[in-house]
Structure formats: structure tokens, C-alpha cells
Amino acid sequence: MEKKPKGTRTGYTTGACSAAAARAATLGLVRGRVPDQVECELPNGQRVVFAVTDGRCEGATAHAVVIKDAGDDPDVTDKARLTADVALLPEAVGAVVLKGGEGVGTITRQGLGLEVGGPAINPVPRRNIEANVREAAGDLLERAGLEVVISVPGGEEIAKRTLNYRLGIVGGISILGTTGIVHPYSTAAFRASVIQAIEVAANQGQDVVVLTTGGRTERFVMNELPQLPPVCFVQMGDFLKYALDTVVRCGLRHVVIGGMVGKLTKIAQGETITHANRNAVDTDLLADIAAEVGAPAEVCADIRSSAMARYASERMEDLGLITAFYEALGRRAIRTLRERYPDRFTLRILMCDFEANKLAEVAEEDSPGLRLSSPLPRGED
User: Any residues with CB less than 8 A from the CB of 81 and at least 6 apart, and which?
Assistant: First the structure.
């Protein structure tokens, strides 16, 4: 069999692994022994064989573990032990009751489409787990119901490396997955998380969303806007288009963007997917901005011939023009975005250097609620 190139091997979601563990434990109740491997149907209809560990039956209960394989994706839940404990419910014939155990987060806020106080098991995995349990149980459900408890030992520690707390998910990880498959460096998964985070902010009644390109810029804007609750801050990464499209769909009124020179230049030049592997930074644009704020012609020529946005920033700093340069860049970015999204939301841009020090801040002149001398509307705690 041909070996896949490094970095392309797919894996399986927490939802798929939970469904496989639940199916194996259910088969244990039916047969008296938990199998060493189990074929599980994924949400996309594909059937996959999973290895099962720590399988055991004890009277009216069965236990099974599937160790998550995320493939070549750098997923914090890789090697997590997705665990299912299935128990007979003699008094609830035909029912399949799904619960969250140790290491599965609890929903504490509205806006996720899940019951507050319930487990963070998303709708697609929830349906997939139940479908696999019912298929495996067969005639058993004519005599009893089944309680399925999904747990993830160590899940609370794993969750500290996620943004679950920002969404109001505490005490563990989420059980996720819309297809069952994890693709390496899954842009689809990240894009979906950006969209979901903005939807949560809107569903919680916020009218401001603060979009950042990464952890460094997020820490910067959080320090600048301490009056806003954490749910307002969304790491959009390179997915500006999807973030702003979601802002429009959800009716949010104010957008703040926190960024550094490279991503801001991409925005100013009209790129709505700002990944470095897409179109190059337009250094002609940066040279024009440098000239606009008074940089000498020879400096502008150097910037034009450079391939790096950071070079322009460094030259402007040497000339003492860094603030004027960033303000002009921010105004250019706002103008570009306004052409694409006319009159849908107000815009404000905060800019920092590579050490997260503030360099400049600009807002639309026709947005009095977001003037630089005025604070943003205060979010609800």
C-alpha cells in the first residue's frame, strides 16, 4: 500500500471516538464481552474499525475506551482516552440517555445550542453516539433502556489548552465533529470555531466583537479593552472573511480588529483570507503609505523592493514615523473593508508591534460611538 506523505494522514474526532467506545461497550452488554475492535459508522456515513482498550463487563454495566488518533493534525486531544460506560435502565425501555462524565465540559452559558448545565457534547456527535448504540443494542432496547456516560480522563487539564472557557464550557473538553474525520491542520475546523465563537457572542447579547489574528494580538487588545467580557474576543486567525460574514449575519454592530503590520497590510490590500501562503504582501502599497506620511524617496524605494511588511515598520520606526505610518495603514484597511461591507457595522483597528506594544489606533470618522476619545460600549458580564 502506498504510504501517505508526511503531514497528510487523517484522524478521527472526539465525537467519532466516543461513538466507537459507546458502541463497543453496548456490544459488551449484548454479548457478555467487550470486543477488542469495533466497526463504527461516522456521521459522514463512512464505516471505520477502531481499536478498543480496557473493555470489561460487570453485570448490568460495560466499559470501553478508544484512544483518539488525530492523524497528522496538531490536536490537543490527540491520544485522549475517550471512554464510555453503558448501563442498563430496566425502567426506561427503549431509551438511550446520554450523559457527560469526568473530563467532559459542562455548558454554563446560552448560545452554544446546548442545554445550560448539560454536557458539552455537540449535536452531531450526540446523534452519532445514539445511532451507534441503538444499532449495537438491537433487541436489547425492547427489554431495557441504556444510560451512556462519555468521559475523558485528564480532560479538564486538556481543556486548559483550548478556548472552551471563553465560550462558557468548564471542567473539560467538548465532544466535537461534524463528519467524524480530522483533517491535518484542519482549516475547516478552525473556521468553524471562529464562526461559532462569534455566534456565541451574539447569542449572549453582545454588540461588539474583537477579532484578532493570534494569541499575541489577542493579549494586546484584551489589555486595551478590559471593559469587554472574554466572549467578545475571537481569534479569527486568517479567516477575516468568514468572521465578518458571520458578524453581518448575526447583526453585531461594532467590530474591532487587532493586528500587526503583515496581516493589516493583507487586509488593506483587499485579502480576506490572510494566510502567508496566499498572495504576497503588497510592498508597493506600504511604500505608498510611507510616502504619504513623509518618508524620503530612497526609503520608499527600499520598502518597495523588500518582500517583508515588517521591514517597512522598522524603517518607519527609525524615522520616527511609526505612529503616522500605522494610522495611515489602519485607515487604508478600514476603507478597503468598508467597500466590501458597506454600512453593516462600525470599524475600529488597534495595532501593535511584535512585542505587543501599542503603536496606533484608528476608527471611522462617521462612527461617534467608536471615536478614539470614547470607550467602546460596555459588554455585559
Answer: 53, 65, 66, 67, 68, 152, 153, 154
Give the side-chain half-sphere CA count within 13 A for 71: 20
What's phi and psi for 21, nearest 5 deg?
-65, -40
Burial class (CB in 10 A: 0-12, 13-18, 19+), 173: buried
Backbone angles phi, psi at 18, to 5 degrees: -65, -40
DSSP 314-362: HHHHHTT-HHHHHHHHHHHHHHHHHHHSTTSSEEEEEEE-TT--EEEEE
pLDDT digits (tens, 9 = 90+) for 49-74: 999 999 999 999 999 999 999 887 77
Q: Which three cell numbers stand for residue 20?
A: 466507537
Residue listed under C-alpha cell 475492535: 37
Q: Are 38 and 213 in contact (CB under 8 A)?
A: no
Do 167 and 200 touch, CB atoms closer than 8 A?
A: yes
Reported CATH class of domain 11-182: alpha beta
Mean pLDDT, range 302-321, rounded to an integer: 88
Residues in the chain: 381
Q: Rounded to the nearest 5°, which phi and psi values hold at 132?
A: -70, -40
CA distance 80 to 57: 22
Residue-wise pLDDT tens digits, 96-151? 999 999 999 999 887 677 898 999 999 999 999 999 999 999 999 999 999 999 99
Report pTM: 0.64
Q: Tell me the domain boundaries of the chain.
A: 11-182, 187-370
